[in-house]
Design brief:
Layout lengths: L2 H10 L2 E2 L2 E2 L6 H8 L3 H23 L6 H15 L9 H29 L21 H14 L2 H12 L4 H8 L3 H20 L5 H6 L2
Antiparallel strand pairs: 1-2
Helix pairs in contact: 2-3, 3-4, 3-5, 4-5, 5-7, 6-7, 7-9, 8-9
Length: 216
C-alpha cells in the first residue's frame, strides 16, 4: 500500500459521532493488517486510534488518568481479535466494541483493586469515594453518563456490553447484534434487563428522573 493510498484511506474514514461515513472503507486495510502487512497495521492503527480513545473515555470518563494506557491495551486487543473479524458489522463498530469491553474490564480491575486496598487499610473499614454527582452536575449529561458507567461495573458483563454500546456509543440494536454476533432478540433481552437495573438505580435518586425517562 503506497503512502498516497494510506492518505486517501485516512481521508475516507470520516466520522459523524461514532459512525463512519463509509462503513467498509477500512475493510481492505483491516484484512491486510490481520495478515501481518506492517504498512497496513500502521495505517489501520493511525485511523482507528481516535475512535479507540473516544470509546475508552466514554466508558472511563473524560477525565480518567488511565485513558491512554487503556487505549493502548485496547489497540493490542483489537490487533489480537482482528483475524477473527468476519465483516458482520463495520470495522469501526468492531473496533469500538473491543474498546468498550477493554475499558469495562479496566474499570472492574480498578474497582477490585480499590476494594482490596480498602480492606487492607489499618482501619478495616470500606470507605470508597462517593460516585454521586455534585449539585451542579446532577442535571448535566455527564451526571447521567456517570450513573451509566457506575452501573456497568455491577451488571453481568453481557448486559453491561449491550448497555454501553447502546447508551454510551449510541449503537442501534441491529448494529449491536451485528457487531457482537448475537441474535437481535438476545440483544433486546439483555438491554431490557440492563435498563431495568438502570431504572432501579436511578429511581433511588429523584434528581436523576430525566435519565429514568430516557431509559424507558
Amino acid at each position: 500500500m503506497s503512502a498516497a493510498d494510506r492518505v486517501r484511506l485516512l481521508r475516507l474514514v470520516r466520522v459523524e459521532g461514532d459512525r463512519p461515513s463509509r462503513p467498509d472503507a477500512l475493510a481492505s486495510v483491516a484484512q491486510a493488517a490481520a495478515a501481518g502487512d506492517r504498512a497496513a497495521v500502521r495505517t489501520f492503527l493511525l485511523t482507528v486510534g481516535p475512535h479507540l480513545l473516544r470509546s475508552v473515555r466514554r466508558v472511563l470518563g473524560a477525565g480518567s488518568a488511565d485513558a491512554d494506557d487503556v487505549t493502548q491495551e485496547a489497540a493490542l486487543a483489537v490487533m489480537d481479535a482482528l483475524p477473527r473479524y468476519r465483516g458482520e458489522a463495520s470495522v469501526l463498530h468492531f473496533v469500538c466494541r473491543v474498546a468498550v469491553l477493554t475499558a469495562m474490564n479496566a474499570r472492574r480491575r480498578a474497582a477490585a483493586q480499590k476494594r482490596r486496598s480498602v480492606r487492607d487499610d489499618e482501619f478495616g473499614v470500606e470507605v470508597l469515594p462517593s460516585l454521586a454527582p455534585g449539585p451542579e452536575a446532577n442535571a448535566s449529561a455527564e451526571a447521567s453518563a456517570a450513573v451509566v458507567r457506575e452501573l456497568l461495573d455491577a451488571l453481568p458483563i453481557e448486559q453491561a456490553e449491550v448497555l454501553a454500546l447502546h447508551c454510551v456509543l449510541g449503537y442501534t440494536l441491529p448494529e449491536i447484534a451485528a457487531t457482537a454476533g448475537l441474535p437481535l432478540e438476545t440483544v433486546r433481552s439483555r438491554l431490557r434487563l440492563a435498563k431495568q437495573a438502570l431504572r432501579t438505580r436511578v429511581l433511588g435518586d429523584p434528581r436523576l428522573a430525566d435519565l429514568s425517562r430516557e431509559s424507558s
